[in-house]
Amino acid sequence: GQNIDQPTEMTATEGAIVQINCTYQTSGFNGLFWYQQHAGEAPTFLSYNVLDGLEEKGRFSSFLSRSKGYSYLLLKELQMKDSASYLCAALDSNYQLIWGAGTKLIIKP
Amino acid sequence: GAVVSQHPSWVICKSGTSVKIECRSLDFQATTMFWYRQFPKQSLMLMATSNEGSKATYEQGVEKDKFLINHASLTLSTLTVTSAHPEDSSFYICSALTPEASGGPQETQYFGPGTRLLVL
Lengths: 109, 120
Description:
A: 109 residues; mainly beta; 6-stranded mixed sheet; 5-stranded antiparallel sheet; B: 120 residues; 7-stranded mixed sheet; 0% helix
């Protein structure tokens, strides 16, 4: 079956760095997405990776290893507004998005 | 990024009534839109894939006669919750695929702001 695993909840300190991991098992693979979702709001697009390696976009970076079925989202210089759920989603061979349950990130002062 | 709107953002209705939710792509044409629902503290659940000019594809367990989807134009898809009941209360979110990426390797979904439905 198809499956996405990511931690349920993480806590980090303002100004620090946090890495949110995601492992996936899908029927075929056409890329991996990270979305941010604040409580009560719809998800917003953060990143897309289809090739191995690190993609940097400001304070956020996303990494993919296709051979390991693994990705992570790296958030630097954490701000209180980064408190949100972070959703990992993999695109399978039918171009369907398979969603993880999300990682709730709590930022403490 | 691309802009997707949803209307209304909040709906409170009586049990037994029908509610229509609109999803619009504002600055691009979307041949494919998706409808999700999300219960509190849970992940997104895909309900159906809406393709312009054809019938929607429903996920297993989603009643197509209860959740009517119409994708009449390249910028508008509607979800109608018929004979709503309290258990239909949820957060309904639509998303649209950017057209240049549809079916390709860089498919990106952009989400509408969501519609919160409360059935009394």
